[in-house]
Amino acid sequence: MMDPITLSLKVALIAVCIDFVFGLAIARSMARKEFVGKNIIESIIILPMVLPPTVLGYGMLILLGKRGGLGQMLMEQFGIQIIFTWWAAALASAVVSFPLMYQSAKAAFASVDIFLEQAARTLGTGEMRIFLTITLPLAWPGILAGLVLAFARALGEFGATLMVAGNIPGKTQTIPLAIYSAVETGDDELAKTLVLTITILSFAAVFFLNRWSKKKVQVWRKGSEAHVESRNI
Amino acid sequence: MNRYWKSIATVLAVLMLLLLPLAGGVSAAGNKVIIKVSAAISLKDALAAIKEAYARKEPGVGLQLNLASSGLLQKQIEEGAPVDLFISAGISQMDELALKGLLIPQTRSDLLGGELVLIVTREKRTLIKGFADLSKGAFSFTIGQPETVPVGKYAKETLLSMKLWEKLANRIVFAKDARQVLTYVDSGNVDAGLVYRSDVVGLRGAVVAAVAPKDSHSPIVYPMAAIIPGKNLDVTRKFMDFLKSPEAARIFSKYSFVPLQKNVAVKSRY
Q: Is the full-model pTM beyond 0.90?
């Protein structure tokens, strides 16, 4: 059993972790490349942001359900059922919040001075090292902003979550689902408490991470500039 | 530079911390038999009480409740969501699942009945004392969307049978569910509306003025049935028997539902 607040935090954090890994990987590979069909792929990536969550949820339900392609494969190969577990909630939140992470990360990567990477390359630095020591630190503020937004969006996810994870108290009932339950059954007091809780949580998340990232930006800007200067000498 | 690595490490540490309990969490469900129940959200409080009572009676069996609108629950079952027992707020959702062969026919029965009541906003309660006063007293009226919301369908039937539909037609505000009907009237924005009696909890700005006669609408029924493949069917059946017991009936009555004892299903009229 898990109360809605803890569960919401867990779901949102896992969702953001998924967004972080995939968002970084895809944004990095898309930021500096031009190829035929790039526009189409990017539009698909942004789609979850503009589609109604219930549409996404229905799509995921069809895909992940026992009769859907992916759900069937997972069931037969590994005996895993995702529908009606909190993993489904995390996945739904991750999908819905992914565009926020991706857009921020892409913009951040694109803003990194390409000459710095090339300079490192001429000095024989490996691609992975370039990414970890030059590109990522310089893009980090933008990536952080993406993380904040994705987290806040994941915390408030309702439509897709209700579809694929169900509204199971103690198992998949996140704060938004608990609010829905409370409102539907006329439990105004509980609804108000939860509305206040999620508002404070979201506000705190955005506020503190914003403040944190602003501080970091200054420190890193200085740090990386010094680093680059020392290399240039 | 150091700070940058530190924050990367923080992100990784958080990830690890989060993933640790997951590994254990999956298998922690234990040896309890779990009945997965998908039920109409209007039954939330009643089923919470039922769950408690059943936990005392059968400590080895756990109930997992999934609560949403009947239409959504139906879709989830159609897509193969793991469900043992479905309790619907409408007959049509159950019929569709039956048509698709997704429920175990011999387990289907009608669990609960309901009543339709006329609620009136406080300011109008002296003016509207029953259905007869509606055409004169109510300047605005609200019911659920008859095509999509079961309670709206029953409400329309009642209004039609009382010859009020024509008179009220251009004053009706259609709501997306019973809860919205209730909110409209309770907040004083609409003069009167028709909802289930079981939905009438904690009214502040409205009162129940009348009960719609039973023969003014088709029977309000909450059917239930076990869903295929019927894993742990014996356990599910035993729980279904409990739902029909006098003990469960007392709980349902407390939440203004009408327990139906007879073990037959109302035949659909479609």
A: no
